[in-house]
Q: What sequence folds into this?
């Protein structure tokens, strides 16, 4: 099979990541940047999960092993494949990426909230969330306070 | 191998990923902040569906609640506070990032050609540590859901770190925006001729069901998909829905700010406390085999839970129960703290304006 099929998931996930990165870079609006960051973060999660997928596998809950569902699932696969890669007759997907990403998603929303609260405080201090306008305000403030400070020093 | 079933699953995978790409492009093109936030919610919901296809049931839960629920609410709270207009657009500003993204993307796609095939059971990621967790969990931990076993027992120290990060983020938001409203919140408008009556009745019916569902996800977490992180986020949705429909004042009367704060800290303490008890009984930090001292373990009747030779399974079961409870406390209370921070700030601004 060609690489575009066997590696389709990875390529699609990279396209998604790059869309997130583009949103992050192409705008000066801080809220839109946080949206881009969230997009990038979710796409990274999709990459990990793609790596952990096992062909013909099921969710890593061992209760399936001796159940009718487990036997029905094993019946759809080649017995030699199940013998080699299965555990007690059931093929499971890799649980480790699921664990890593599960906690990363919750930490992600918590850090997104911290970022957004910083944006809210920036808006309160500068009256805008556009980076170029913030820089302009900061430059004006520096120009106003600069001479005053040198006078005080002299 | 049954090719038709596998191909159908792969086709679903491709279709959902293409939908994600389309939604992603729509986010990038959108000039309206509101539209891009709602599209991000759709993106999360579609990726939750895709996660089910990838057998990641636990992750799908979390992504659906966090992405389509909590993060949408937080982002909407933020645009309410900053009152941002439409995103300004200048096509000249888009060329350097586009070139950069194309370059980075090209390099990454070149690197992808060295990865094992998608779904390869013999790839290094799937053949070693992940597989040994699957084999050892029934013997060593004795819970059916391997994701829960890895999360709370094998990698319990890592999970403690994640819980502390969530807690710290909650503190960060509270320090930045306050723990809740400072002003005396004005009473909600008198409900005469209230056209939100359908919304109120539905919310009243939904809130207990949401909480019941959260507790099911919590306490069923070692048997099926679920656990403290998922349940914590689902549980936080109940007060947030209450505040959105009945007003922040009513919610804060029901669940005071100081109670939420204390519960968030209590969760971390409970988690770390279980680890310390394990040390006191002669084990390592968070080694639940030593959760009970030998005198207590001797009293456990054989065969009552799991393998009769493994009285240690009792320690594992109770250890996982308590640390998942700690995660539930911290995650749900932190999410409510974050919501109180944003909503309280908005209420203060309204008060100052009027």
A:
């Amino acid at each position: 099979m060609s690489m575009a099929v066997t590696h389709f998931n990875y390529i699609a996930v990279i396209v998604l990541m790059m869309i997130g990165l583009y949103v992050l870079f192409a705008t000066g609006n801080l809220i839109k940047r946080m949206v881009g960051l969230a997009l990038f973060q979710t796409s990274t999660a999709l990459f990990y999960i793609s790596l952990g997928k096992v062909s013909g596998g099921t969710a890593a809950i061992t209760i399936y092993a001796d159940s009718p569902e487990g036997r029905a699932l094993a019946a759809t696969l080649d017995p030699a494949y199940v013998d080699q890669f299965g555990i007690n007759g059931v093929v499971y997907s890799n649980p480790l990426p699921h664990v890593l990403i599960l906690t990363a998603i919750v930490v992600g929303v918590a850090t997104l909230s911290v970022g957004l609260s910083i944006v809210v405080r920036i808006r309160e201090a500068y009256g805008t969330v556009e980076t170029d306008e913030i820089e302009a305000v900061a430059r004006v403030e520096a120009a106003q306070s600069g001479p005053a400070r040198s006078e005080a020093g002299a | 191998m049954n090719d038709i079933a596998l191909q159908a699953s792969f086709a679903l995978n491709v279709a959902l990923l293409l939908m994600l790409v389309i939604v992603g492009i729509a986010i990038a093109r959108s000039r309206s902040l509101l539209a891009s936030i709602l599209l991000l919610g759709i993106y999360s919901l579609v990726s939750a569906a895709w996660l089910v296809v990838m057998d990641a049931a636990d992750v799908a839960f979390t992504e659906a609640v966090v992405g389509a629920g909590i993060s949408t609410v937080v982002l909407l709270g933020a645009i309410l506070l900053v009152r941002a207009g439409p995103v300004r657009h200048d096509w000249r500003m888009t060329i350097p990032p586009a070139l950069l993204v194309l370059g980075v993307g090209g390099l990454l796609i070149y690197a992808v050609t060295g990865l094992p095939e998608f779904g390869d059971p013999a790839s290094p990621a799937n053949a070693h540590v992940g597989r040994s967790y699957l084999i050892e969990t029934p013997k060593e931990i004795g819970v059916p859901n391997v994701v829960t076993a890895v999360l709370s027992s094998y990698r319990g120290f890592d999970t403690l770190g994640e819980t502390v990060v969530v807690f710290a983020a909650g503190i960060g938001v509270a320090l930045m925006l306050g723990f809740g409203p400072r002003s005396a919140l004005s009473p909600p408008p008198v409900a005469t001729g209230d056209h939100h009556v359908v919304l109120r009745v539905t919310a009243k019916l939904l809130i207990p069901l949401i909480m019941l569902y959260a507790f099911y996800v919590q306490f069923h977490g070692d048997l099926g998909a679920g656990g403290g992180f998922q349940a914590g986020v689902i549980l936080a949705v109940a007060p947030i829905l209450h505040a959105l429909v009945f007003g922040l004042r009513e919610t804060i009367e029901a669940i005071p700010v100081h109670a939420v704060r204390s519960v968030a800290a209590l969760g971390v303490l409970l988690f770390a406390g279980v680890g310390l008890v394990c040390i006191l009984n002669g084990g390592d930090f968070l080694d639940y085999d030593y959760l009970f001292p030998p005198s207590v373990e001797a009293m456990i009747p054989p065969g009552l839970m799991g393998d009769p030779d493994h009285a240690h399974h009792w320690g594992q079961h109770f250890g996982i129960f308590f640390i998942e409870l700690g995660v539930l406390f911290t995650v749900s209370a932190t999410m409510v703290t974050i919501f109180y921070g944003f909503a309280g700030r908005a209420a203060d601004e309204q008060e100052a304006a009027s």
In short: The mean pLDDT of chain A is 86. Residues 3-53+94-153 of chain A form a domain with the Helix Hairpins fold (CATH 1.10.287.3510). Chain A is about 75% helix and 0% strand. The longest helix of chain A spans residues 95-126.
